[in-house]
């Protein structure tokens, strides 16, 4: 019984660490969120903090996973939308939110680049995340094509991949051009995909 209680406490502490780390990265940015800064935030030593994770890299991947969970809870339409309009509106809400937290955008883009290394912990996270998003978006896009809302000469999976590519690319551009309006880019892509009589 004590082991189960201890395990539950460990899970709860890990969750506390990730939520606090998410706030630190959003506030301080990727470079300001050192392991020491994160440990101080939750009242642990650096070694104590890393006790809950296999490595610093895994810690940052889990921060990103937590970011996705929080975003999806607040903007579920971006992923699990029943209609194209719900998907568009939910997705644009997330894009607007991302523009307000450049530290998390920087974490995302850095870990996305690290995912090129098959051994990096971010590789599996990004592969799973990307495939899941594209599959769900493609389903919504295919349904919208059936309703005549989206051009029928574009493959739904290709459209989903384009949406992801524009979004991920916009986040990279935002880091260099903070004045970039990512929402306009995504809205324009949705408009280009619409059937001519639905524009």
TrEMBL record:
Keywords per UniProt: DNA-binding, Transcription, Transcription regulation
Chain ranges of the HTH tetR-type domain: 11-71
PROSITE patterns: HTH_TETR_2
InterPro entries linked to this entry: Homeodomain-like_sf (IPR009057), HTH_TetR (IPR001647), Tet_transcr_reg_TetR-rel_C_sf (IPR036271)
DNA-binding region: 34-53
Record has DNA-binding as a keyword: yes
Signal peptide residues on this chain, from the entry's feature table: none
GO MF: DNA binding
The protein's name in its UniProt record: HTH-type transcriptional repressor KstR2
Native species: Microbacterium azadirachtae
Gene name in the database record: kstR2_1
């Amino acid at each position: 019984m004590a082991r189960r209680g201890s395990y539950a406490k460990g899970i709860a502490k890990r969750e506390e660490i990730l939520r606090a780390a998410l706030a630190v990265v959003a506030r301080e940015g990727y470079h300001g969120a050192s392991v020491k800064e994160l440990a101080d935030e939750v009242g642990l030593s650096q070694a104590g903090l890393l006790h809950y994770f296999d490595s610093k890299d895994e810690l940052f991947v889990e921060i990103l996973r937590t970011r996705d969970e929080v975003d999806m809870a607040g903007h579920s339409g971006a992923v699990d939308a029943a209609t194209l309009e719900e998907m568009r509106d939910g997705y644009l809400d997330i894009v607007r939110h991302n523009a307000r937290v450049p530290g998390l955008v920087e974490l995302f883009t850095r870990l996305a680049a690290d995912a090129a290394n098959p051994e990096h912990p971010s590789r599996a996270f990004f592969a799973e995340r990307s495939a899941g998003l594209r599959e769900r978006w493609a389903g919504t896009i295919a349904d919208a094509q059936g309703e005549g809302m989206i051009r029928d000469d574009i493959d739904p999976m290709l459209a989903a991949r384009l949406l992801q590519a524009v979004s991920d690319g916009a986040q990279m551009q935002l880091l260099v051009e903070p004045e970039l309006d990512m929402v306009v880019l995504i809205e324009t892509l949705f408009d280009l995909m619409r059937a001519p009589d639905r524009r």
